[in-house]
Amino acid sequence: MEQTNLQLNKPDSQTNEWDARLHHATRATREDWVGRGISYLCIGAIILVVASMLWFITSKGIATFTQNHVSVLKFLTGTNWAPDTGHIGAAPMIVGSFAVTFAAAIVATPFAIGTAIFMTEISPNRGRKLLQPVIELLVGIPSVVYGFIGLAVVVPFMRHLVGGSGFGIISATFVLFVMVLPTITSMTVDSLRAVPRYYKEASLALGATRWQTISRVILRSATSGILTAVIFGMARAFGEALAVQMVIGNAAVMPKNLISAASTLTSQLTSGIGDTIDGTLPNNALWSLALILLLMSLFFNALVRFIAKRGQLKHER
Amino acid sequence: MNNGSKLAMGIAAISLLLVGCGKATSSTSSKSSSSSQALSGKVTAVGSTALQPLAAKAGTNFTTKNSKVTLTVQGGGSGTGLSQVQAGAVSIGDSDIFAEEKDGIKADKLTDHKVAVVGMAPVVNKDTGVKNLKMAQLKQIFTGKITNWKEVGGKDQKIVIVNRAQGSGTRATFENAVLKGATAVKSQEQDSNGAVQKIVSSTPGAISYLAFSYFTNKLQAVSINNITPTDNNVENNKWKIWSYEHMYTKGKPDAATAAFLTYMNSKTVQDSLVKDMGYISIHDMKVAKDAKGVVTQN
Q1: Do A297 and A172 share a domain, yes or no?
Q2: Which of A90, A190, A294, B134 is the most buried (most CB within 10 A)?
Q3: How far is the alpha carbon of A121 from chain B, nearest alpha carbon, in Å?
Q4: What is the ipTM of this complex?
Protein backbone atom coordinates (compact mmCIF):
# COMPACT_ATOMS: atom_id res chain seq x y z
CA MET A 1 0.00 0.00 0.00
CA GLU A 2 2.67 2.30 0.92
CA GLN A 3 4.54 1.34 -2.13
CA THR A 4 1.64 1.94 -4.42
CA ASN A 5 1.17 5.28 -2.84
CA LEU A 6 4.74 6.10 -3.38
CA GLN A 7 4.57 4.85 -6.91
CA LEU A 8 1.47 6.79 -7.64
CA ASN A 9 2.71 9.88 -5.98
CA LYS A 10 5.12 10.75 -8.63
CA PRO A 11 2.80 10.10 -11.55
CA ASP A 12 0.15 11.99 -9.62
CA SER A 13 2.01 15.23 -9.79
CA GLN A 14 2.72 14.50 -13.42
CA THR A 15 -0.95 13.81 -14.07
CA ASN A 16 -1.82 17.09 -12.44
CA GLU A 17 0.51 18.87 -14.75
CA TRP A 18 -0.86 17.02 -17.74
CA ASP A 19 -4.31 17.72 -16.48
CA ALA A 20 -3.56 21.39 -16.27
CA ARG A 21 -2.10 21.43 -19.72
CA LEU A 22 -4.88 19.44 -21.31
CA HIS A 23 -7.88 20.94 -19.63
CA HIS A 24 -6.87 24.54 -19.61
CA ALA A 25 -6.80 26.53 -22.80
CA THR A 26 -3.37 27.38 -24.05
CA ARG A 27 -2.52 30.86 -25.14
CA ALA A 28 -3.06 29.90 -28.76
CA THR A 29 -6.52 28.55 -28.03
CA ARG A 30 -7.49 31.67 -26.14
CA GLU A 31 -6.34 33.81 -29.01
CA ASP A 32 -8.40 31.61 -31.26
CA TRP A 33 -11.47 32.29 -29.13
CA VAL A 34 -10.86 36.00 -29.08
CA GLY A 35 -10.33 36.06 -32.81
CA ARG A 36 -13.46 34.05 -33.43
CA GLY A 37 -15.42 36.23 -31.05
CA ILE A 38 -14.32 39.38 -32.80
CA SER A 39 -15.14 38.08 -36.24
CA TYR A 40 -18.57 36.84 -35.13
CA LEU A 41 -19.18 40.23 -33.59
CA CYS A 42 -18.26 41.93 -36.87
CA ILE A 43 -20.39 39.57 -38.92
CA GLY A 44 -23.27 40.07 -36.52
CA ALA A 45 -22.94 43.84 -36.74
CA ILE A 46 -22.86 43.80 -40.53
CA ILE A 47 -25.87 41.50 -40.74
CA LEU A 48 -27.69 43.76 -38.33
CA VAL A 49 -26.87 46.85 -40.38
CA VAL A 50 -27.95 45.24 -43.65
CA ALA A 51 -31.10 43.79 -42.15
CA SER A 52 -32.12 47.04 -40.50
CA MET A 53 -31.47 48.97 -43.71
CA LEU A 54 -33.62 46.55 -45.68
CA TRP A 55 -36.33 46.80 -43.06
CA PHE A 56 -36.08 50.59 -42.86
CA ILE A 57 -36.23 51.24 -46.59
CA THR A 58 -38.99 48.68 -47.09
CA SER A 59 -41.16 49.96 -44.26
CA LYS A 60 -40.70 53.57 -45.34
CA GLY A 61 -41.11 52.68 -49.01
CA ILE A 62 -44.43 50.92 -48.62
CA ALA A 63 -45.89 53.73 -46.51
CA THR A 64 -46.93 55.40 -49.77
CA PHE A 65 -49.20 52.44 -50.43
CA THR A 66 -50.32 51.63 -46.89
CA GLN A 67 -50.69 55.12 -45.39
CA ASN A 68 -51.34 57.35 -48.38
CA HIS A 69 -53.30 54.61 -50.18
CA VAL A 70 -51.75 55.12 -53.57
CA SER A 71 -52.20 52.03 -55.71
CA VAL A 72 -48.96 50.25 -56.58
CA LEU A 73 -49.98 49.97 -60.21
CA LYS A 74 -50.67 53.70 -60.41
CA PHE A 75 -47.31 54.41 -58.83
CA LEU A 76 -45.44 52.22 -61.29
CA THR A 77 -47.31 53.25 -64.45
CA GLY A 78 -48.44 56.82 -63.74
CA THR A 79 -46.59 59.46 -65.71
CA ASN A 80 -47.39 62.57 -63.67
CA TRP A 81 -44.81 63.21 -60.94
CA ALA A 82 -45.88 66.15 -58.80
CA PRO A 83 -45.74 64.92 -55.20
CA ASP A 84 -46.71 68.32 -53.78
CA THR A 85 -50.09 68.05 -55.46
CA GLY A 86 -50.52 64.36 -54.73
CA HIS A 87 -49.60 62.94 -58.13
CA ILE A 88 -46.89 60.34 -57.86
CA GLY A 89 -46.52 58.47 -61.11
CA ALA A 90 -42.98 57.12 -61.06
CA ALA A 91 -42.91 55.75 -64.60
CA PRO A 92 -40.85 58.65 -66.05
CA MET A 93 -38.05 57.99 -63.55
CA ILE A 94 -38.22 54.22 -63.93
CA VAL A 95 -38.04 54.52 -67.71
CA GLY A 96 -35.26 57.10 -67.41
CA SER A 97 -33.19 54.91 -65.14
CA PHE A 98 -33.52 51.86 -67.37
CA ALA A 99 -32.88 53.89 -70.52
CA VAL A 100 -29.56 55.33 -69.31
CA THR A 101 -28.53 51.98 -67.82
CA PHE A 102 -29.13 49.93 -70.96
CA ALA A 103 -27.79 52.62 -73.27
CA ALA A 104 -24.58 52.92 -71.24
CA ALA A 105 -24.14 49.14 -71.13
CA ILE A 106 -24.75 48.76 -74.85
CA VAL A 107 -22.21 51.46 -75.69
CA ALA A 108 -19.62 50.36 -73.15
CA THR A 109 -19.64 46.60 -73.71
CA PRO A 110 -17.96 46.47 -77.16
CA PHE A 111 -15.25 48.87 -75.97
CA ALA A 112 -14.74 46.85 -72.79
CA ILE A 113 -14.52 43.52 -74.60
CA GLY A 114 -12.15 44.96 -77.19
CA THR A 115 -9.89 46.40 -74.51
CA ALA A 116 -10.00 43.17 -72.53
CA ILE A 117 -9.06 41.06 -75.56
CA PHE A 118 -6.17 43.41 -76.28
CA MET A 119 -4.99 43.16 -72.69
CA THR A 120 -5.19 39.39 -72.43
CA GLU A 121 -4.67 37.96 -75.91
CA ILE A 122 -3.11 40.48 -78.24
CA SER A 123 -0.64 42.41 -76.18
CA PRO A 124 -0.63 41.27 -72.56
CA ASN A 125 2.59 43.10 -71.82
CA ARG A 126 1.61 46.54 -73.02
CA GLY A 127 -1.87 45.87 -71.71
CA ARG A 128 -0.55 45.45 -68.22
CA LYS A 129 1.83 48.37 -68.37
CA LEU A 130 -0.39 50.91 -70.12
CA LEU A 131 -4.05 50.00 -69.97
CA GLN A 132 -4.25 48.51 -66.48
CA PRO A 133 -3.19 51.77 -64.76
CA VAL A 134 -5.51 53.80 -67.00
CA ILE A 135 -8.47 51.63 -66.09
CA GLU A 136 -7.63 51.69 -62.42
CA LEU A 137 -7.41 55.47 -62.63
CA LEU A 138 -10.87 55.64 -64.17
CA VAL A 139 -12.27 53.63 -61.26
CA GLY A 140 -10.77 56.00 -58.73
CA ILE A 141 -12.20 59.26 -60.10
CA PRO A 142 -15.09 60.42 -57.88
CA SER A 143 -18.47 60.60 -59.58
CA VAL A 144 -18.86 64.32 -58.90
CA VAL A 145 -15.81 64.89 -61.11
CA TYR A 146 -17.40 62.85 -63.89
CA GLY A 147 -20.55 64.90 -63.45
CA PHE A 148 -18.64 68.14 -63.58
CA ILE A 149 -16.81 67.14 -66.73
CA GLY A 150 -20.15 66.05 -68.14
CA LEU A 151 -21.67 69.45 -67.35
CA ALA A 152 -18.72 71.44 -68.68
CA VAL A 153 -17.80 69.34 -71.72
CA VAL A 154 -20.38 66.72 -72.70
CA VAL A 155 -23.51 68.86 -72.36
CA PRO A 156 -22.24 71.75 -74.55
CA PHE A 157 -20.82 69.22 -77.02
CA MET A 158 -24.16 67.43 -77.34
CA ARG A 159 -25.89 70.80 -77.68
CA HIS A 160 -23.73 71.62 -80.70
CA LEU A 161 -23.95 68.12 -82.13
CA VAL A 162 -27.66 67.36 -81.83
CA GLY A 163 -29.28 70.60 -80.71
CA GLY A 164 -31.68 71.11 -77.83
CA SER A 165 -30.38 72.10 -74.41
CA GLY A 166 -27.74 69.37 -74.30
CA PHE A 167 -29.22 67.90 -71.14
CA GLY A 168 -30.77 64.49 -71.56
CA ILE A 169 -30.40 60.76 -71.78
CA ILE A 170 -27.68 60.96 -74.41
CA SER A 171 -25.40 63.07 -72.20
CA ALA A 172 -26.08 60.81 -69.23
CA THR A 173 -25.29 57.78 -71.38
CA PHE A 174 -22.00 59.30 -72.42
CA VAL A 175 -20.95 60.06 -68.84
CA LEU A 176 -22.08 56.65 -67.58
CA PHE A 177 -20.28 54.94 -70.46
CA VAL A 178 -16.97 56.24 -69.13
CA MET A 179 -17.97 55.36 -65.58
CA VAL A 180 -18.97 51.74 -66.20
CA LEU A 181 -16.23 51.05 -68.75
CA PRO A 182 -13.55 50.21 -66.14
CA THR A 183 -15.92 47.95 -64.20
CA ILE A 184 -16.89 45.94 -67.26
CA THR A 185 -13.36 45.91 -68.66
CA SER A 186 -11.55 44.69 -65.57
CA MET A 187 -14.13 41.97 -64.90
CA THR A 188 -14.02 40.86 -68.54
CA VAL A 189 -10.22 40.69 -68.31
CA ASP A 190 -10.54 38.42 -65.29
CA SER A 191 -12.95 36.09 -67.04
CA LEU A 192 -10.80 35.94 -70.19
CA ARG A 193 -7.75 35.08 -68.10
CA ALA A 194 -9.74 32.30 -66.44
CA VAL A 195 -10.22 30.49 -69.76
CA PRO A 196 -8.05 27.35 -69.53
CA ARG A 197 -4.84 27.56 -71.56
CA TYR A 198 -5.44 24.21 -73.19
CA TYR A 199 -8.61 25.49 -74.87
CA LYS A 200 -6.50 27.99 -76.72
CA GLU A 201 -3.72 25.49 -77.40
CA ALA A 202 -6.16 22.91 -78.73
CA SER A 203 -7.80 25.45 -80.97
CA LEU A 204 -4.50 26.63 -82.40
CA ALA A 205 -3.33 23.05 -82.83
CA LEU A 206 -6.42 22.35 -84.91
CA GLY A 207 -5.28 25.05 -87.28
CA ALA A 208 -7.59 27.88 -86.18
CA THR A 209 -6.30 31.39 -86.72
CA ARG A 210 -5.87 33.77 -83.79
CA TRP A 211 -9.12 35.55 -84.66
CA GLN A 212 -11.00 32.25 -84.87
CA THR A 213 -9.57 31.19 -81.53
CA ILE A 214 -10.52 34.45 -79.85
CA SER A 215 -14.01 34.75 -81.27
CA ARG A 216 -15.10 31.12 -81.21
CA VAL A 217 -13.23 29.61 -78.28
CA ILE A 218 -12.12 32.21 -75.79
CA LEU A 219 -15.05 34.60 -75.97
CA ARG A 220 -17.52 31.75 -76.09
CA SER A 221 -16.17 29.99 -73.04
CA ALA A 222 -15.97 33.30 -71.14
CA THR A 223 -19.54 34.30 -72.02
CA SER A 224 -20.98 33.89 -68.55
CA GLY A 225 -18.12 35.88 -67.05
CA ILE A 226 -18.60 38.67 -69.59
CA LEU A 227 -22.34 38.76 -68.92
CA THR A 228 -21.63 39.04 -65.21
CA ALA A 229 -19.29 41.93 -65.95
CA VAL A 230 -21.95 43.72 -68.00
CA ILE A 231 -24.55 43.26 -65.28
CA PHE A 232 -22.19 44.63 -62.65
CA GLY A 233 -21.64 47.62 -64.92
CA MET A 234 -25.38 48.05 -65.28
CA ALA A 235 -25.86 47.87 -61.53
CA ARG A 236 -23.35 50.66 -61.14
CA ALA A 237 -25.04 52.76 -63.83
CA PHE A 238 -28.47 52.17 -62.30
CA GLY A 239 -27.36 53.36 -58.90
CA GLU A 240 -25.25 56.32 -59.98
CA ALA A 241 -26.81 59.53 -58.71
CA LEU A 242 -24.62 62.59 -58.73
CA ALA A 243 -23.01 62.47 -62.15
CA VAL A 244 -26.28 61.60 -63.84
CA GLN A 245 -28.18 64.26 -61.97
CA MET A 246 -25.77 66.91 -63.22
CA VAL A 247 -26.22 66.12 -66.91
CA ILE A 248 -29.69 64.64 -67.39
CA GLY A 249 -31.66 67.80 -66.63
CA ASN A 250 -34.02 66.29 -64.04
CA ALA A 251 -37.33 66.79 -65.75
CA ALA A 252 -39.89 64.34 -64.43
CA VAL A 253 -41.42 63.72 -67.85
CA MET A 254 -41.61 60.58 -69.96
CA PRO A 255 -38.46 60.68 -72.11
CA LYS A 256 -39.62 61.23 -75.68
CA ASN A 257 -36.18 61.15 -77.23
CA LEU A 258 -32.55 60.96 -76.23
CA ILE A 259 -31.88 64.68 -76.32
CA SER A 260 -34.61 66.12 -74.12
CA ALA A 261 -34.26 66.49 -70.38
CA ALA A 262 -35.30 63.41 -68.41
CA SER A 263 -34.78 62.15 -64.89
CA THR A 264 -33.81 58.97 -63.09
CA LEU A 265 -34.83 57.43 -59.78
CA THR A 266 -31.59 58.55 -58.20
CA SER A 267 -31.67 62.08 -59.57
CA GLN A 268 -35.20 62.64 -58.22
CA LEU A 269 -34.13 61.27 -54.85
CA THR A 270 -31.11 63.50 -54.43
CA SER A 271 -32.82 66.65 -55.63
CA GLY A 272 -36.02 66.12 -53.68
CA ILE A 273 -35.02 64.71 -50.32
CA GLY A 274 -34.01 68.01 -48.68
CA ASP A 275 -37.28 69.72 -49.40
CA THR A 276 -39.73 67.17 -48.09
CA ILE A 277 -41.12 66.65 -44.61
CA ASP A 278 -40.89 63.31 -42.83
CA GLY A 279 -44.15 61.37 -42.94
CA THR A 280 -45.80 63.37 -45.74
CA LEU A 281 -46.67 61.99 -49.17
CA PRO A 282 -43.79 63.72 -51.04
CA ASN A 283 -41.32 62.18 -48.57
CA ASN A 284 -42.91 58.72 -48.64
CA ALA A 285 -42.94 58.80 -52.43
CA LEU A 286 -39.17 59.35 -52.45
CA TRP A 287 -38.75 56.36 -50.12
CA SER A 288 -40.77 54.32 -52.58
CA LEU A 289 -38.31 55.33 -55.29
CA ALA A 290 -35.51 54.18 -52.99
CA LEU A 291 -37.32 50.88 -52.53
CA ILE A 292 -37.42 50.37 -56.30
CA LEU A 293 -33.68 51.02 -56.42
CA LEU A 294 -33.09 48.50 -53.66
CA LEU A 295 -35.23 45.85 -55.35
CA MET A 296 -33.44 46.43 -58.62
CA SER A 297 -30.01 45.98 -57.07
CA LEU A 298 -31.22 42.76 -55.42
CA PHE A 299 -32.45 41.70 -58.85
CA PHE A 300 -29.07 42.45 -60.44
CA ASN A 301 -27.36 40.41 -57.72
CA ALA A 302 -29.69 37.47 -58.24
CA LEU A 303 -29.09 37.66 -61.98
CA VAL A 304 -25.32 37.54 -61.48
CA ARG A 305 -25.65 34.45 -59.28
CA PHE A 306 -27.95 32.80 -61.78
CA ILE A 307 -25.54 33.39 -64.65
CA ALA A 308 -22.57 32.22 -62.61
CA LYS A 309 -24.37 28.96 -61.84
CA ARG A 310 -25.26 28.37 -65.50
CA GLY A 311 -21.67 29.09 -66.47
CA GLN A 312 -20.36 26.53 -64.02
CA LEU A 313 -22.67 23.86 -65.32
CA LYS A 314 -21.47 24.46 -68.86
CA HIS A 315 -17.84 24.06 -67.92
CA GLU A 316 -18.52 20.84 -66.04
CA ARG A 317 -20.20 19.29 -69.03
CA MET B 1 2.01 40.64 -33.38
CA ASN B 2 -0.68 37.98 -33.41
CA ASN B 3 -3.86 37.82 -35.41
CA GLY B 4 -6.15 38.71 -32.54
CA SER B 5 -4.55 42.05 -31.88
CA LYS B 6 -4.34 42.76 -35.59
CA LEU B 7 -8.08 42.26 -35.82
CA ALA B 8 -8.63 44.44 -32.79
CA MET B 9 -6.56 47.15 -34.40
CA GLY B 10 -8.58 46.80 -37.57
CA ILE B 11 -11.77 47.30 -35.63
CA ALA B 12 -10.31 50.28 -33.86
CA ALA B 13 -9.38 51.75 -37.23
CA ILE B 14 -12.87 51.18 -38.60
CA SER B 15 -14.56 52.71 -35.62
CA LEU B 16 -12.25 55.71 -35.90
CA LEU B 17 -13.30 56.01 -39.53
CA LEU B 18 -16.96 55.85 -38.58
CA VAL B 19 -16.48 58.55 -36.01
CA GLY B 20 -14.77 60.59 -38.70
CA CYS B 21 -17.73 60.15 -41.00
CA GLY B 22 -20.13 61.24 -38.31
CA LYS B 23 -18.16 64.41 -37.78
CA ALA B 24 -17.90 65.16 -41.48
CA THR B 25 -21.63 65.86 -41.80
CA SER B 26 -21.37 69.07 -39.84
CA SER B 27 -20.29 71.65 -42.36
CA THR B 28 -19.44 74.50 -40.10
CA SER B 29 -18.53 73.96 -36.52
CA SER B 30 -16.93 76.84 -34.80
CA LYS B 31 -15.42 77.03 -31.42
CA SER B 32 -13.00 79.64 -30.35
CA SER B 33 -11.41 80.83 -27.22
CA SER B 34 -11.77 84.29 -25.77
CA SER B 35 -12.94 85.44 -22.41
CA SER B 36 -16.66 86.10 -21.84
CA GLN B 37 -19.46 85.49 -19.37
CA ALA B 38 -21.27 82.33 -18.47
CA LEU B 39 -23.15 81.86 -21.75
CA SER B 40 -22.54 78.31 -22.88
CA GLY B 41 -24.24 75.48 -24.67
CA LYS B 42 -24.74 73.93 -28.04
CA VAL B 43 -26.72 75.49 -30.88
CA THR B 44 -27.46 73.61 -34.08
CA ALA B 45 -29.06 75.38 -37.03
CA VAL B 46 -30.09 73.19 -39.94
CA GLY B 47 -31.98 73.80 -43.17
CA SER B 48 -32.20 76.35 -45.97
CA THR B 49 -29.12 76.50 -48.16
CA ALA B 50 -30.07 80.07 -49.09
CA LEU B 51 -29.67 81.15 -45.47
CA GLN B 52 -26.73 78.89 -44.72
CA PRO B 53 -23.88 81.25 -45.72
CA LEU B 54 -25.28 84.10 -43.60
CA ALA B 55 -26.02 81.86 -40.63
CA ALA B 56 -22.57 80.31 -40.82
CA LYS B 57 -20.76 83.68 -40.98
CA ALA B 58 -22.88 85.17 -38.20
CA GLY B 59 -22.35 81.99 -36.20
CA THR B 60 -18.57 82.28 -36.46
CA ASN B 61 -18.70 85.89 -35.29
CA PHE B 62 -21.05 84.94 -32.46
CA THR B 63 -18.85 82.17 -31.11
CA THR B 64 -15.81 84.42 -31.24
CA LYS B 65 -17.56 86.55 -28.64
CA ASN B 66 -19.10 83.62 -26.74
CA SER B 67 -16.35 81.08 -26.58
CA LYS B 68 -18.29 78.56 -24.52
CA VAL B 69 -21.00 78.21 -27.13
CA THR B 70 -20.63 75.61 -29.86
CA LEU B 71 -22.60 76.60 -32.92
CA THR B 72 -23.12 74.31 -35.88
CA VAL B 73 -24.75 75.41 -39.12
CA GLN B 74 -25.79 72.85 -41.70
CA GLY B 75 -27.66 72.92 -45.00
CA GLY B 76 -30.05 70.22 -46.11
CA GLY B 77 -32.96 72.27 -47.42
CA SER B 78 -35.89 74.15 -45.89
CA GLY B 79 -37.92 70.95 -45.57
CA THR B 80 -35.17 69.29 -43.59
CA GLY B 81 -34.83 72.35 -41.36
CA LEU B 82 -38.54 72.51 -40.56
CA SER B 83 -38.97 68.79 -39.94
CA GLN B 84 -35.82 68.58 -37.80
CA VAL B 85 -36.82 71.49 -35.57
CA GLN B 86 -40.35 70.11 -35.30
CA ALA B 87 -38.91 66.76 -34.20
CA GLY B 88 -36.78 68.58 -31.65
CA ALA B 89 -33.56 67.26 -33.20
CA VAL B 90 -32.04 70.71 -33.72
CA SER B 91 -32.34 74.03 -31.91
CA ILE B 92 -32.98 76.14 -35.01
CA GLY B 93 -34.65 75.19 -38.28
CA ASP B 94 -33.67 77.47 -41.17
CA SER B 95 -36.33 77.95 -43.81
CA ASP B 96 -37.02 80.10 -46.88
CA ILE B 97 -40.74 79.68 -46.47
CA PHE B 98 -43.33 80.08 -43.74
CA ALA B 99 -43.88 76.90 -41.75
CA GLU B 100 -47.59 77.33 -42.55
CA GLU B 101 -46.84 76.77 -46.22
CA LYS B 102 -45.41 73.32 -45.72
CA ASP B 103 -47.62 70.24 -45.39
CA GLY B 104 -46.85 68.09 -42.39
CA ILE B 105 -45.50 70.96 -40.27
CA LYS B 106 -47.50 72.13 -37.29
CA ALA B 107 -46.74 75.83 -37.52
CA ASP B 108 -48.44 76.76 -34.25
CA LYS B 109 -45.89 74.66 -32.37
CA LEU B 110 -43.00 76.67 -33.82
CA THR B 111 -41.81 80.22 -33.22
CA ASP B 112 -40.80 82.26 -36.25
CA HIS B 113 -37.75 84.54 -36.16
CA LYS B 114 -37.30 86.48 -39.40
CA VAL B 115 -33.63 87.24 -39.83
CA ALA B 116 -33.30 88.54 -43.39
CA VAL B 117 -35.10 89.12 -46.67
CA VAL B 118 -34.12 87.66 -50.02
CA GLY B 119 -35.21 89.08 -53.34
CA MET B 120 -35.48 86.81 -56.32
CA ALA B 121 -35.70 87.62 -59.99
CA PRO B 122 -36.05 85.82 -63.28
CA VAL B 123 -32.74 85.39 -65.06
CA VAL B 124 -32.20 84.56 -68.70
CA ASN B 125 -29.30 83.61 -70.87
CA LYS B 126 -27.72 86.76 -72.32
CA ASP B 127 -28.27 86.06 -76.01
CA THR B 128 -32.06 85.77 -75.72
CA GLY B 129 -32.11 89.56 -76.09
CA VAL B 130 -34.78 89.96 -73.43
CA LYS B 131 -34.35 92.42 -70.56
CA ASN B 132 -37.91 93.12 -69.50
CA LEU B 133 -41.05 91.00 -69.32
CA LYS B 134 -44.61 91.64 -68.30
CA MET B 135 -45.79 89.61 -65.30
CA ALA B 136 -48.38 87.93 -67.54
CA GLN B 137 -45.72 86.95 -70.06
CA LEU B 138 -43.55 85.49 -67.32
CA LYS B 139 -46.48 83.40 -66.16
CA GLN B 140 -47.18 82.22 -69.71
CA ILE B 141 -43.54 81.21 -70.14
CA PHE B 142 -43.47 79.12 -66.98
CA THR B 143 -46.83 77.52 -67.69
CA GLY B 144 -45.70 76.58 -71.19
CA LYS B 145 -47.98 78.92 -73.18
CA ILE B 146 -45.07 80.87 -74.65
CA THR B 147 -42.28 78.68 -76.00
CA ASN B 148 -40.21 80.99 -78.19
CA TRP B 149 -38.34 84.14 -77.22
CA LYS B 150 -39.55 86.00 -80.34
CA GLU B 151 -43.07 86.02 -78.87
CA VAL B 152 -41.85 88.36 -76.12
CA GLY B 153 -39.57 90.51 -78.26
CA GLY B 154 -36.43 88.45 -78.18
CA LYS B 155 -34.55 86.30 -80.65
CA ASP B 156 -36.14 83.45 -82.61
CA GLN B 157 -35.02 80.86 -80.11
CA LYS B 158 -36.70 78.09 -78.16
CA ILE B 159 -37.24 78.81 -74.45
CA VAL B 160 -35.50 76.34 -72.12
CA ILE B 161 -37.09 76.49 -68.68
CA VAL B 162 -34.90 75.58 -65.74
CA ASN B 163 -36.95 75.16 -62.60
CA ARG B 164 -35.93 74.50 -59.03
CA ALA B 165 -36.79 71.13 -57.47
CA GLN B 166 -40.39 70.66 -56.32
CA GLY B 167 -40.74 71.70 -52.71
CA SER B 168 -37.80 74.10 -52.87
CA GLY B 169 -38.38 77.33 -50.95
CA THR B 170 -37.16 79.52 -53.80
CA ARG B 171 -39.54 77.80 -56.20
CA ALA B 172 -42.45 78.19 -53.79
CA THR B 173 -41.75 81.93 -53.46
CA PHE B 174 -41.45 82.39 -57.22
CA GLU B 175 -44.59 80.42 -57.99
CA ASN B 176 -46.62 82.24 -55.33
CA ALA B 177 -45.66 85.61 -56.79
CA VAL B 178 -45.74 84.77 -60.50
CA LEU B 179 -47.92 81.74 -61.21
CA LYS B 180 -50.47 82.50 -58.46
CA GLY B 181 -51.81 78.96 -58.28
CA ALA B 182 -51.28 77.88 -61.88
CA THR B 183 -49.20 74.76 -62.45
CA ALA B 184 -45.76 75.13 -63.93
CA VAL B 185 -45.01 73.19 -67.09
CA LYS B 186 -42.85 70.10 -66.51
CA SER B 187 -39.28 71.02 -67.19
CA GLN B 188 -35.69 70.65 -66.08
CA GLU B 189 -35.20 70.89 -62.35
CA GLN B 190 -32.02 71.79 -60.52
CA ASP B 191 -31.53 71.57 -56.80
CA SER B 192 -29.39 74.59 -56.04
CA ASN B 193 -28.89 78.26 -56.86
CA GLY B 194 -25.36 77.47 -57.97
CA ALA B 195 -26.43 74.87 -60.52
CA VAL B 196 -29.10 77.22 -61.90
CA GLN B 197 -26.57 80.04 -62.22
CA LYS B 198 -24.17 77.86 -64.18
CA ILE B 199 -26.77 76.29 -66.44
CA VAL B 200 -28.61 79.50 -67.33
CA SER B 201 -25.38 81.30 -68.19
CA SER B 202 -24.25 78.50 -70.49
CA THR B 203 -27.48 77.24 -72.08
CA PRO B 204 -28.89 79.26 -75.04
CA GLY B 205 -32.50 80.27 -74.51
CA ALA B 206 -32.54 79.34 -70.83
CA ILE B 207 -34.71 81.06 -68.21
CA SER B 208 -34.83 80.48 -64.49
CA TYR B 209 -34.91 82.50 -61.28
CA LEU B 210 -32.26 83.28 -58.70
CA ALA B 211 -31.73 85.11 -55.45
CA PHE B 212 -30.22 88.59 -56.06
CA SER B 213 -26.92 87.54 -54.52
CA TYR B 214 -26.38 84.98 -57.28
CA PHE B 215 -26.57 87.48 -60.16
CA THR B 216 -23.44 87.62 -62.30
CA ASN B 217 -22.51 89.53 -65.43
CA LYS B 218 -22.83 86.31 -67.42
CA LEU B 219 -26.59 86.38 -66.80
CA GLN B 220 -29.34 88.81 -67.63
CA ALA B 221 -31.60 89.63 -64.69
CA VAL B 222 -35.02 90.46 -66.08
CA SER B 223 -37.15 93.44 -65.04
CA ILE B 224 -40.86 92.84 -64.60
CA ASN B 225 -43.28 95.53 -65.81
CA ASN B 226 -40.21 97.78 -66.10
CA ILE B 227 -39.41 97.50 -62.41
CA THR B 228 -35.81 96.50 -61.87
CA PRO B 229 -34.90 93.86 -59.30
CA THR B 230 -33.13 95.96 -56.66
CA ASP B 231 -33.04 95.94 -52.88
CA ASN B 232 -34.90 99.29 -52.74
CA ASN B 233 -37.76 97.96 -54.84
CA VAL B 234 -38.05 94.95 -52.55
CA GLU B 235 -38.11 97.12 -49.43
CA ASN B 236 -41.21 98.98 -50.61
CA ASN B 237 -42.73 95.88 -52.26
CA LYS B 238 -42.63 97.31 -55.79
CA TRP B 239 -40.73 94.16 -56.60
CA LYS B 240 -43.04 91.34 -55.59
CA ILE B 241 -40.81 88.26 -55.64
CA TRP B 242 -39.18 88.11 -52.24
CA SER B 243 -39.29 86.04 -49.12
CA TYR B 244 -38.13 86.10 -45.55
CA GLU B 245 -35.37 83.92 -44.28
CA HIS B 246 -36.75 82.30 -41.16
CA MET B 247 -35.13 80.72 -38.16
CA TYR B 248 -37.70 78.56 -36.44
CA THR B 249 -37.47 77.36 -32.85
CA LYS B 250 -39.68 74.96 -30.97
CA GLY B 251 -40.87 75.84 -27.50
CA LYS B 252 -38.75 78.15 -25.38
CA PRO B 253 -35.23 78.42 -26.80
CA ASP B 254 -32.36 77.85 -24.37
CA ALA B 255 -30.14 80.77 -23.37
CA ALA B 256 -27.51 80.24 -26.05
CA THR B 257 -30.07 79.87 -28.83
CA ALA B 258 -31.97 82.93 -27.65
CA ALA B 259 -28.76 84.95 -27.50
CA PHE B 260 -27.85 83.89 -31.02
CA LEU B 261 -31.28 84.88 -32.33
CA THR B 262 -30.97 88.27 -30.64
CA TYR B 263 -27.54 88.64 -32.20
CA MET B 264 -28.96 87.83 -35.65
CA ASN B 265 -31.47 90.64 -35.19
CA SER B 266 -28.90 93.12 -33.87
CA LYS B 267 -27.62 96.16 -35.76
CA THR B 268 -24.18 94.60 -36.09
CA VAL B 269 -25.51 91.75 -38.16
CA GLN B 270 -28.42 93.45 -39.92
CA ASP B 271 -26.57 96.60 -41.01
CA SER B 272 -23.31 95.08 -42.15
CA LEU B 273 -23.15 91.31 -42.49
CA VAL B 274 -26.62 90.87 -44.00
CA LYS B 275 -25.97 93.53 -46.65
CA ASP B 276 -22.42 92.44 -47.34
CA MET B 277 -23.62 88.97 -48.14
CA GLY B 278 -26.31 90.08 -50.57
CA TYR B 279 -29.38 89.77 -48.35
CA ILE B 280 -31.76 92.57 -47.42
CA SER B 281 -31.99 93.70 -43.82
CA ILE B 282 -35.32 93.19 -42.08
CA HIS B 283 -34.80 96.61 -40.46
CA ASP B 284 -35.03 98.27 -43.88
CA MET B 285 -38.31 96.67 -44.87
CA LYS B 286 -41.14 99.16 -45.25
CA VAL B 287 -43.72 96.41 -45.62
CA ALA B 288 -44.46 93.10 -43.93
CA LYS B 289 -45.80 89.92 -45.48
CA ASP B 290 -47.64 87.16 -43.65
CA ALA B 291 -47.82 83.45 -44.36
CA LYS B 292 -50.80 83.94 -46.69
CA GLY B 293 -48.87 86.46 -48.77
CA VAL B 294 -50.84 89.48 -47.55
CA VAL B 295 -48.61 92.58 -47.56
CA THR B 296 -49.10 95.38 -45.03
CA GLN B 297 -47.27 98.71 -44.62
CA ASN B 298 -45.04 98.87 -41.58
Answers
A1: yes
A2: A90
A3: 40
A4: 0.73
